[in-house]
What does this fold into?
Amino acid sequence: MPERLGPRFDLAFTLNGTPVGMATTTATTLADLLRERRDGRGTKLACERAVCGACTVLIDDVPRASCSVFAFEVADSDVRTVEGLGTGGEPSAVQAAFADNSAFQCGFCTAGMILLTEALLARDPDPDDAMIRDWISSNICRCTGYALILEAVREAARRKREAGE
Ligand code: FES
Ligand code: FES
It folds into this structure.
């Protein structure tokens, strides 16, 4: 969606470890800013009502629905998106676990699932299944591939523990 109207202001925040400064409007959502102004198409948009979780990003290490966060709310914050985790040739441990377990079908929920997993494992390196289910419940997989997603999170946790991460 094009940038929404509203008073303009200068926004400064950190995106995937890089300081960002840009002019935007008070009505622009973080999701629109990432997708339209930062080429961040890994952040998906679906419901745009903080219901489905497809647009999940980490703000100061907390998962948030970026469709329902105004850009001005991330001033001076640290924002992480899936683009900041790894590359095709060098994926993060969580990305690799999702790929190795085929934990996606259409892939629309996958960036959010991976970011939720990163945040979960930062808090609890050995979560049980109830914890994993609870943590990813904010992101709806329309392809209902939850069994493989669950296995991917378990696998990511194992790999990170073995690597001492
Ligand atoms: S698009 Fe943001 S929660 Fe659905
Ligand atoms: S893989 Fe299609 S929505 Fe989850």
Observations:
- The pocket of FE2/S2 (inorganic) cluster (ligand 1) is lined by residues 45-48, 50-55, 65, 67 (CB under 6 Å).
- The domain at 93-162 is CATH 1.10.150.120 (DNA polymerase; domain 1).
- The longest strand covers residues 8-15.
- Strands lie at 8-15, 18-25, 56-59, 62-65, 78-80.
